[in-house]
Amino acid sequence: MNFDSTRRWLALGALAVAMLTIGLDVTVLVVALPTLATDLNASTSALQWFSSAYTLALAALMLPAGALGDRYGRKKGLVAALLVFGVASVGCALATSSGELIAGRAVLGIAAAAMMPLSMSVLPAMFPEPQQRQRALTIWITSTAVGIPLGPLVGGWLLGHFWWGSVFLINVPLVVIGVLAVLALVPESRSEQAFRLDLPGVALSAIGMLGVTYGFIGFGEKGWGDGTFWAIVIAGVLVLAAFIWWQRSAATPLIDLDLFRANGFRWGAVYLVLVNFAMFGMFFTVPQYFQAVLGVDSFGSGLRLLPMIGGLIVGSRVVDKAPPALGVRAVLVSGFALLAVGLGLGALTRIDYGYGYTALWIVIIGIGMGLVMPASMGLAMGELTAERSGTGSALLQALRQAGGTIGVAMLGTVLATRYRAELGPLDREPISDGINAGAAVARKLGDAAMLEHVRTAFLGGMGAMLWVCAATCLVAIPIVALTQRGAASGAAKIRSSNESESTHVG
């Protein structure tokens, strides 16, 4: 391996470490919420906004961030985003009020909105050879996915040894590594064509994504009968429709709608939305099951997610080492089938089942994720030229984020509805608020029968939700089989779409 090749892989490793911070930030806060409620005297509404502020900023600004990288330089944009993320992490750790922490979380979301697409968009310049690019994409997406189940583990350990601000300060050394490595190892790249930033497109995309995301967050909190959030979602959809109309007539559009004419990009994006819809719902539920039903603490919950990480790594290695003759179709069908099996087994969980059963089905889910996510991303990225890799990557990440947000809202409502239905005479506040509140009431009263009833009701809700997730993955199987019929293998497809690609490296 020559020096240039070594430098590329070292840079990718540093990017992967930095991207862990985004996955960690999605879930690490969950275990800190009870402590924050006490130390910052935070209301229930404030606790919800600690998470929502991050999600909303991330969704609203991802598309503009990708375009800025294409215009002014992806390396510069990535370094700036990493620095902002590090500073915002320190600000969150030092917050003394709920308002300060919400503001810090919003800034973290802004930085993450740039980090995700820009870190991906530098890969074409670093790995122009198609097979190496697929391997790099697999490593990149695995690093972001691994951070999600690691969040409760890291957060639980930090809260057991330090104060709550440590869950944010853990980002700082990772950011420092990322900045130094990007400055030293990552080549600068930008679009060869000078273009003006589409400011009307920026405004329309940000407002539309903000409206849709905020509306679905509201459904997750208030249920599907809230007219205000329906109005917000409809308004967001209308603004996004106006954004698409504007992109068709703009001289320098924010996104290239012609990308969706390419089979690989169009269907790769669809597969990513489907898998994120199912997986975010699962991540929302399983830690609650560990803590409220199995009775473990936040650190123990994180430990019990480790088999999923192992499965994810195994699946991603299969994608990396799969022979070209196998083809992306076979990989995706196998991955979605494993996801459906694992989620179906999870839906059959009963109150007397031990952790061994859970470890089995989350390993299967991890392997399925490791197959589907890198293969889908490679399929879509294989259609991107280096000219528009920033905006194309941002579009993919925005769609993934939308799928996950909608998944949490819809699946959370399925879980809550079934949980309340199975509570029967116990369907009253605060028990009806959720499994944690219900279990707390039962323990306070010392009522073992009530505790078992509440736990059984939660498992009924979790089962209903996981059946929806499994059905989503089952639906994906014939979609893959039909849309990838006769398609080239993943590596060959990426190669054919990039043979004429030219990259400007500065």
Question: Can you tell me about this structure?
Answer:
One of its GO terms (molecular function) is transmembrane transporter activity. The protein is mainly alpha-helical. It has 3 domains: 175 residues, MFS general substrate transporter like domains (Growth Hormone, Chain: A, Up-down Bundle), CATH 1.20.1250.20; 56 residues; 242 residues, Up-down Bundle (Growth Hormone, Chain: A). 80% of the residues lie in helices and 0% in strands. The chain contains 19 helices and no strands. The longest helix is centred in the N-terminal third of the chain and has 37 residues. The chain starts with a helix and ends in an 8-residue tail after the last helix. The C terminus is likely disordered.
SSE ordering: HHHHHHHHHHHHHHHHHHH
Structural class: mainly alpha
Quaternary structure state of the chains depicted: single chain
- For the report, how would you describe the main beta sheet? none
Organism: Nocardia panacis
Protein name: DHA2 family efflux MFS transporter permease subunit
Keywords: Cell membrane, Membrane, Transmembrane, Transmembrane helix, Transport
Membrane topology: Multi-pass membrane protein
Topology:
Elements: H1 3-39, H2 44-72, H3 74-93, H4 98-121, H5 123-126, H6 130-161, H7 166-169, H8 171-185, H9 199-222, H10 227-249, H11 263-293, H12 298-303, H13 306-321, H14 327-347, H15 355-381, H16 389-423, H17 435-445, H18 448-483, H19 490-498
GO molecular function, one term: transmembrane transporter activity
Pfam families: MFS_1
InterPro entries: EmrB-like, MFS, MFS_dom, MFS_trans_sf
